[in-house]
Each structure stands twice: as C-alpha cells, then as structure tokens.
Amino acid sequence: MGTCRVSPDHRYLAYTLDTTAEEQFTLHIKDLKHGKILPQLNVSGVVNLAWAQDGRTLFYTVSDETKRPYRVLCTKIGSDSVDSIPIFTENNSSFCLDITNTKDGKFITVNSSSRTSSEEGISLVYLIDANKPSDGFRCIRKRLPGVRYFLEHHNGFFYILTNAPFKEDKDMPTEDYYLAKCRFEEVFSSANWQTVILPSENFSLQDIDIFNGHLVLFLNKNGSPAICSLNLPIEDQMEFQCLNPWFFPLPSDCCDIAPGSNHDFMTSVYRVVLSSPVMPEIIVDYDMSSHKFSIVHQEEVLGISSNYISCSPANDVTTENEMPKIWKDFSSKYNCERKEVISDDGIAIPLTVLYSRKAWKRDQSPGLLIGYGAYDVNLDKSWCSDRLSLLDRGWIIAFADVRGGGGGDNSWHKSGSGLCKRNSIYDFVICGKYLVNEGYVHKDLLSAMGISAGGLLVGAAINMHPNLFCSAVLKVPFLDVCNTLLDPSLPLTILDYDEFGNPEIKSHFEYILSYSPYDGILQRVCYPSVLVTASFHDSRVGVWDASKWVAKVRDRTCSNCSQSIILKTNMSGGHFSDCGRFGHSEETAYEYAFLMKTMGLIQNMVKREGSKIH
C-alpha cells in the first residue's frame, strides 16, 4: 500500500496499491458504508491524495514515465462523468508535485519542488462551498533558487516554514529555516509575512505540526534532535524562550524521533515514537496542555534476560512536582557511544558506535560501518533486533553521519552533495580508519554496508582505499553514476541533477567521473569480498547497475577477488524488496553469514566447537 486518506465525513477510503513492486500505484476508493470498492476508477501512477471538504471531491497526483509526479487531477464520486479533470500540470521536468491538506482541512496545498527549491500553490476550500474546489490554484511566490517553504493554517492565519530571503537580502536564501505567519489575504505577498521564530546558535528548525491550541516544532538542539510545543496563537515576534516552549522529555540517548498518527486537529495530545540503538521502539503521548507524558507501549525483545533492562531518567523534565519518568533500554548490556571524527578539512563527523559490553574485545573484534550520505536524509539508527546476532558475537556496529545526509542545518547536506560529493566519501573513509586506529575493530576485520545511494558511498570508498575494508554489502546500490545521469529517460534522473550534478556540464561530468564507483574501479588491485544485491523490478536503480559493476570488478581484479564478488538478484522484488517480515529476516541472515564467512569467522567458530567436542 502506498498512501490512504479517509474522506472528511468518513464515508470513503481512498488508497493506492502496487502489485508489481515497480512503485506503480493504482488508485482505489472504497465505500465504507456499504463495504464495496467503487468500480469506475482505474488510474495508475497515483502518488498523493487529498479530499475536499464535501467528502466527494478527491484530488490526486499522477507520475509520468520517469516516475515524476507531474499532474494534479480531480475526480468527483457520484458524478455522471467518470473522467478525472486535470487541475494543474508541472511541465518543468526538474520539479515534482505533492498535494496535501492543511491539518484543519480548510485548504489544499500543492507543492512543486525540486531537490532545492519549491513553489507552493494553494486552493481554498470553504466548508460551505466545498463543491467548487476547482476554482483554481494561486501561486504564493515565484521560485527562487535554493528556497523552500511549507504551509499550515490556523484560525485565519498561515504559518510558513521557510528559508526564503529576508527583505534586506532578496536574492539569497537563508541558511536555516525560520517560521513566519500572515493572514490569508496577505499570503500572496511575502512583504506582509511576519517573522515569528528565528533559528539561533543553539537550535535550528526542522519541521512543524499544528493543532487547534498548539504548535509543535521539530528542532536540532545543540546537535541532538528535540521536540517542543508552543501555545497558539502566537501574537508577535518574540525571543524563543519568551514563548514558553515546553520541550518534550526524551531519553538521554535517543537517536530517532518520529511522529505517530496525529490526525486530530482538536487534540492536545501529541504521539511520538522514540528509539535508539540500545532502546527498543517506544510510543509516548505528550499532553501539551498539562505538560505531562505517558508511555503507551514499548516493543518487547525476546531472548534478552530482564536482568539487562536498564532504567534511565528523562531529560528536560521542567514541570514542577513531576516525577521523572523512566525509559527501559539495554544500555547495561550494549554500549552506545557518540564520537566526533575530525575529517581532513577539520570538520567534525558524528560517529555512533554500538557494541556488547561483554563480547567486544579491543583491537580484536570485527566491525560493520554503515553510511548513506545523500538527499539530506538522516541515517537510521533506531533499534533493530537483527543486530543482536552480530553484537553478541563481539562485533561493533558503527553509523557514520557523513556530509550529504541529514544534519543540524542545511549546510551539512550542501557540503556533501553536487560538486562537494567527495566530502561524504572522505568522511566515510576517515570514520573507518578511526575505528581501526582507536582499537574498536581489528585492522583486518572491518566491513561496510550501504543501501541505494549509500552503495555509491561505500563503492567509492572501496575504490579510494581498497585495503581498508575486508568485505562489504551493497544493497540495490547506485554505482554507475555517470552513465545513469547521462540518460534523462531513466526514472528520477533529472531530479538527481540537484543532488549529484548534471554530467551534460563538463565540469560536473569530470567531477562525477572522479568518484563514480563503476568508472573508478582499479586494475590489478585486490578488492574486498563484496555481496551486491539487486532487484529486477527496481524502478529507482536499474538492475543492470549492480550487474555491470560486478562484471567489471571480476574482469579487472585478480582471480581470487573475482571469486568473492557475489551478485544476488531478487527476480520479483523492487527497490524496497517485497519479502515481508520473514523474508527480511532471511535476507539479513544471508548478509550476516556472508560477512562472517568472508572474514573467516565461521571457520574459526567450527574449529572452536570441534576442539570442545574432542
């Protein structure tokens, strides 16, 4: 299932299904009252959905042959015509369309955005005139390079999260996001936008959510994720602390914060899902009115004795007379450390290191370094019980938050993308060397893993330092960067120009060629053992990408290396696989077995077990 939306009157459910693993979703609408699926719609390539207030008019976006959402259409349930009406088409192939409702349901926003800029249109849907949602879209502001903005509505005011330039600097976007507000009639002229919250040296704004009585802010506070709520309305621009923010109490070692299902605009309770490398997923409800919170549920972990469960106090408990809550984790069994590795150009690269307090041995243990470093996406460091198999065998697992991925501010992504992409690769290499030099990993037992664009990161790092890693796993990896970007007919290629550069430009071509994993394969040099996985129906990274890389490495390197380069292709899956829960466990077991076998660990285990028998 792709996405689903219930109509405002709860009569209909609109949802999308992909039955091919090619991310080609078909729209379905179910009549919840009668329990039947409406037969008249048969639209494929649907991406996003948004209902009008009449509960009968549905807006949706469709994608073109390159998987780019480019058109907004409208259909009305119960009308004589079964054809959808085109509302808006984005002809610029560098931009994608996204459509959604504001939280209060009074507006529908259409966001036309590239990787770096956006242009938001808005369609007013009055509650008493919701049968005329096709009155048209009005553009709020013309595009500016590097500028993005997102809207929410509250009691006649729009709250706008943006990095648009201030009045005194009309041509350059700000480095970080700030929050502005204005009345509906003033939203089409940014000169009337009133700045409400500015970032500071201590925090930057990441995202917002809005409710009838509260505004929720997602922040990066002193390098760590944080969430706070403010009472609405906000009258005038004030110092942030003067707005009396309530910072949600969080575990001291929390890495991953994700909003739960918070669809009720009138609620004062905000649900959040928390996790860390040593804390299983926990669901928490925060009452923004009383400034109290309650733990709803925490994932149970089988196979670990309750003796290892630790209880840690909450951070930022500010309410008077409130007893600190406790969070159950496994920090007494598994240690999670956060280090800063200094890169060659003096930048501190965050590195999270996870290991078993009992099984890990300094200078002797094997290790797995994981990285991504693209699209301003944060590296997933949430709890994963699959890792226990490695940790209990003495492995360390490290997460390198290299430049190009998500970070404290927008500059972290910029400094690792485009003509700065090599920085992310250098960061990954320096993190690998740090693990060896500091004794976390034996110098001959360091492995690496990258998924999709993370495969580019690891593949390029192997080309630069083939002796650093003894083995690697590249999952649906993006390896043939130059040739892929030179073919604009491939899905998502043009959209990736903002992330990696446009090879039609000579300077970009030469720079991409300098790090492209496929083009940088070395001759007559021993490569580490590598498991490369691909999916036949992958619409994001062609199955040929992995095949070409494997063939070229086998051809150019020595015969021993050729035998340890394995290509595993899923003939029925897509980019995100289709194997379900148990199939995922089988995939992970295969990958871990590969890593242990190529390091000689399985043979050593067999010898030890044999000596015990004799």
Structural description of this entry:
This protein is of the alpha+beta class. It is 17% helix and 33% strand. The chain contains eleven helices and 35 strands. The strands form eight sheets. The protein has an eight-stranded mixed beta sheet, with helices on both faces. A four-stranded antiparallel beta sheet has the order 1-2-3-4, with no helix packed on it. It has a four-stranded antiparallel beta sheet with strand order 5-6-7-8, with no helix packed on it. Helix 4 (453-464) links the parallel strand 32 (446-451) and strand 33. The termini are far apart. Residues 122-131 and 317-324 have low confidence and may be disordered.
Quick description:
Helix content is 17%, strand content 33%.
| Biggest sheet character | 8 strands, mixed
Look at the helices and sheets and give the structural class. alpha+beta
Shape: globular
The tally of strands reads 35
Helix content: 10-25%
Mean pLDDT across all amino acids? 84
N- and C-termini, Cα separation: 55 Å
| Beta-strand percentage range | 25-35%
Return Rg in Å: 26 Å
Helix segment tally: 11
Low-confidence stretches: 122-131, 317-324
